[in-house]
Amino acid sequence: MRLFLSEGAPGCLPVLAAAGRARGRAELLISTVGPEDCVVPFLTRPKVPVLQLDSGNYLFSTSAICRYFFLLSGWEQDDLTNQWLEWEATELQRS
């Protein structure tokens, strides 16, 4: 798997925290890209964070990436986790 991040981009901090929970469960390469780099080939605008799975598929929602890492780590997600992810997405990452 490859995780693409950009310094100062919203959503990178929770993704890194979730990736830390999954440490050792899968090989993860972390790449820093510029804010204007288009990582996902089918998106017309740059978007980070992005997780490229070994299958070649992409996850580019902060919540989806966090949930993927939580599942990978074996951490049972509960309503509080989902509430935190939704709050973070709606309150901290407003466009």
Quick summary:
By secondary structure, the protein is an alpha+beta fold. It has three helices and four strands.
Structure description:
It comes from Colobus angolensis palliatus. Pfam families: GST_N_5. This is Methionine--tRNA ligase N-terminal domain-containing protein. The protein is α+β, with helices and mostly antiparallel strands. It has one domain: 3-Layer(aba) Sandwich (Glutaredoxin), CATH 3.40.30.10. It is built from 3 helices and 4 strands, in the order βαβββαα. The protein has a 4-stranded mixed sheet with strand order 2-1-3-4. The protein is globular and about 35 Å long. It starts with a strand and ends with a helix.
Label this structure with key terms.
95 residues; alpha+beta; Glutaredoxin; 4-stranded mixed sheet; 3 helices
Could you give the topology of this structure?
Elements: E1 2-5, H1 12-21, E2 29-32, E3 50-52, E4 58-59, H2 62-73, H3 79-92
Parallel strand pairs: 1-2
Antiparallel strand pairs: 1-3, 3-4
The DSSP helix count reads 3
Q: What is the approximate shape?
A: globular
Major sheet characteristics = 4 strands, mixed
**What is the CATH homologous superfamily assignment?**
Glutaredoxin
Query: What fraction strand?
Result: 5-15%
Q: How many strands appear in the DSSP assignment? A: 4
Report mean pLDDT, rounded to a whole number: 88
Query: What's the helical proportion of residues?
Result: 25-40%
CATH hierarchy, class: Alpha Beta
Structural class: alpha+beta
Question: How are the strands of the largest sheet arranged?
Answer: 2-1-3-4
Question: For this entry, what is the oligomeric state of its chains?
Answer: single chain
Low-confidence stretches: none
InterPro entries: MARS_N (IPR041598), Thioredoxin-like_sf (IPR036249)
Protein name: Methionine--tRNA ligase N-terminal domain-containing protein
Domain Methionine--tRNA ligase N-terminal: 1-74
Organism: Colobus angolensis palliatus (Peters' Angolan colobus)
